[in-house]
Design a protein that fits this description.
This protein has 15 helices and 19 strands. The protein has helices at 2-22, 50-58, 72-81, 85-88, 107-113, 170-182, 207-211, 233-239, 241-251, 254-281, 313-316, 343-350, 365-369, 427-434, 459-478; strands at residues 25-31, 60-62, 65-66, 117-122, 137-139, 148-150, 158-161, 190-195, 203-206, 288-294, 299-300, 306-307, 320-323, 332-334, 338-339, 379-382, 388-391, 395-399, 405-409. It has 480 residues and is of the alpha/beta class. The relative contact order is 0.19. The strands form 5 sheets. The protein has an 8-stranded mixed β-sheet, sandwiched between helices. It has a single domain, classed as Alkaline Phosphatase, subunit A. Helix 2 (50-58) crosses helix 10. Strand 16 (379-382) and strand 17 form a beta hairpin.
Length: 480
Amino acid sequence: MKHLLVLLSPFLIQVSSIAAEQRPNVLFIAVDDLNHWIGHFGRNKQAKTPNIDRLAAMGVSFTNAQCAAPVCNPSRAALLSGKRPGTTGIYDNNNPFTQVLKPDVSLVMQFKNAGYETLGTGKLWHGGLGWPEQWTTIKNESSIKGKVDDRSIGGIAFGSIVEGGDEAVSDTGIADFGISELGKTHDKPFFLTLGFHKPHMPWNVPQKYYDMHPLADIQLPPTKEGDLSDIPPAGVKMAKPTGDHAAVLASGRWKEAVQAYLAAISYLDGQVGRVLDAYDKSPYKDNTIIVFWGDHGWHLGEKEHWRKFALWEEAARAPFIWVVPGVTKPGGICKNPVDFMSVYPTLCDLTKLPKPIWLEGDNIKPLLADPAAAWTGVGVTTFGQNNHTVRTDRWRYIRYADGGEELYDHSNDEYEWTNLANKPEHAALKAELAKHFPTINVTASAKGNMSDNEGEPSEASEAKKEKRKAKKAAAEASKK
């Protein structure tokens, strides 16, 4: 028997190699702080995203996709490990994932161990690419390189780049890396990660992208006066209306901030288009899965709130697009609720990788084949220990750790202006929705000093800066 195994060993290795080579490639595109201001979503008609819309037309776009957490670090750690924030205790940017997780749980490591060439650049995990051992090839990118005409409003950082053009923004180099790799000959299947930074602040992009959105034409997002009046204290605390929103109002420059965010999205869209052009020309087009995802959404004054750091629609919802040769059909729109915990198990299924036992997400392959298929799944988002929201096709239910609640009916309240949680007739509905909340809610992991490489403060440090921002904004306004 031993002699037979020795004789068969080269054959087994060869068969394994052939199997690996026949597996589909993966083009894994992550974007940072992109909410649902995308053309085909219809949420904000000012958004100009022809290339992201083009990508959506190639496969299936999930228009009700919810992040695991409305913060960079826990959202990415959950998606890439398959473990929810309540399982790991990674709730915020200052809970370093490397102190809790091991490299072996990484989605990227699963592909490397399966014989894939793992190629990466930009921001995948919080702060970069994570553990070096996940990768066979990496390219590190710096942040803004050009001179900026800074027009920031307190902590809302933006301004046009006046020297250097697109090449002055790091995401151009990230797209360049993807274009280069798609043009090479690869002997193994590849997992190619492009972690774009935009539209994360600072919204520093060339002026031509600002010009695509003339200030005179800018419309503010729909808001309701006194929107926080029916919100429990825990929700108001998350909104921080006396922080960024007060600063923006005091400056009188809300439209400028909206213009800047739209400009950053348009710049990102251009880079996505360059990558798609290379994909279309490459020999890998018919055997490469594309996954396009955002780590969470972003508020621009809705509910008197800015940034993410909340459990409402603007912060929890993000773009999620799949192109899977032989599975998806062009132009698919899926309105069923899903969350980004689905990425890991679904990719394992599509690429025939073993599914790790710890994964907590749903396999959405049935929805890739038929976006209108019967579906009982929901989207679940967590922000901080035991603060959760569940999103169905119609309802959003939020329950905070202190018992505060919010309930919104999206069939007639898409901006979540009317909290129905205190209506007695909805008691049974809330109880049913609460069954989807995570039952594991461990204490937050050890705190560190993680912050985004573009200057985003952690939630803890941000709270300490709110009063200083408001004072600065008030001082600026008094000078006018």
